[in-house]
Known about the structure:
This protein is 34% helix and 23% strand. The chain has helices at residues 15-28, 40-46, 75-81, 96-103, 119-129, 138-146, 150-173, 180-193, 254-272, 280-293; strands at 33-36, 58-61, 66-71, 86-89, 110-113, 133-136, 198-206, 227-236, 239-240, 243-249, 305-307, 314-318, 331-334, 337-340, 344-347, 350-354, 359-361, 370-372. It has 2 domains: 15-145, Creatinase/prolidase N-terminal domain (Creatine Amidinohydrolase, Chain A, domain 1); 150-372, Alpha-Beta Complex (Creatine Amidinohydrolase), CATH 3.90.230.10. It has 373 residues and is an alpha+beta fold. It contains 10 helices and 18 strands. The radius of gyration is 23 Å and the shape is elongated. Bound molecules: zinc ion (ZN) (2 copies). The site of one zinc ion has 5 residues, from loops.
Amino acid sequence: MIGQRRRPFSENINMNDRINRLQESLRDQEIDLVAVGPTANMRYLAGYASHPDERLCLLLITPDEVRAVVPTLNAEDWIAHCDITPVTWADSDGPSRALSSALSARQPRRVAVDGTMRADFLLTLLEATKPETARVADSLISPLRARKSADEIEALQRSAALADRAVQAVMDACAPGVTEAELTWVAETTFRQGGASRVEFTLIASGPNGAFPHHHSGARRLQRGDAVIIDIGATLDYYVSDVTRVIFLGDPPSEFLRRYAAVKAANEAGRAAVRPGVAAQDVDRATRSVLAEAGLGEHFVHRTGHGLGLEVHEPPWIMAGNDAPLAEGMVFSVEPGIYLPGRYGIRIEDIVVVTTDGVRTLTGFDHELAVRP
Ligand code: ZN
Ligand code: ZN
């Protein structure tokens, strides 16, 4: 039912296998239907996601069947990318008939839905199926998405390499008088010229702005004496990047150098703690204890990291309270940081993959503090 045509980044990805594994857990958990909108979940399971707008578009997976409801205007595109034959509906008819035909008079009692699909899709689905229970399908889909295949890891590696180049381009452009906004443009053009289909975020936080972990880069001009946080990411071949480095303009004071060294040591300790079977929270503990010992614990105000793949933030969450064991193929960030209000921030972020017996770092950019006059 699901074919192998025009794979997004490799000929080897087996969509059948992904659907089969999902169907196995449907049977295990006695779920009658999983409904997925045109989101990263659809891209993962079907190898393609239709243009997301207000028109109803659903991938419907039961323990033994896969169906799709697709607006007619996107049907050609769907058929070109995906072998699940869609039930289509035209704007003038509305989606009701197509939806009931796809459900084929089935009355699913237990339904699980894509947590990121539109609320109007959900309401239409619930109206059509009237299930006894409805829950979010993330606990069924996330475990599949969290463990990346070799092809996905390769795609993430290519994406990380492009992000390294974009960090270098931004650093080359850093000079007193240049605005944060101009530097975000340098990152964007480097990503685009490198083939990125989408720039996800370009966070340039200079001087005191660096104390805001999610600063909105703006008109501030870099000054001598600034620490500048560069945190950028983009989508290349459907897989995202996320990297953070710091550059200092002028002579860094010794106190700054000491703090930078502590964050760098925390990043190293976090990555060194990664291997299969280790609890996610132990990686968080590893970064946090280094910063606590350096007297900087109170300035580390966020979790250590997040998974990434088709999306920038996805499981596993690398934080206290997550005792789930890491497994081979998981990809996530290790990004300890400290934030000193009114002064500066320091964060060093890498993307790592859990290997058979340890860890591999996908980001390649140097960890030494970059300094420009
Ligand atoms: Zn980041
Ligand atoms: Zn991140």
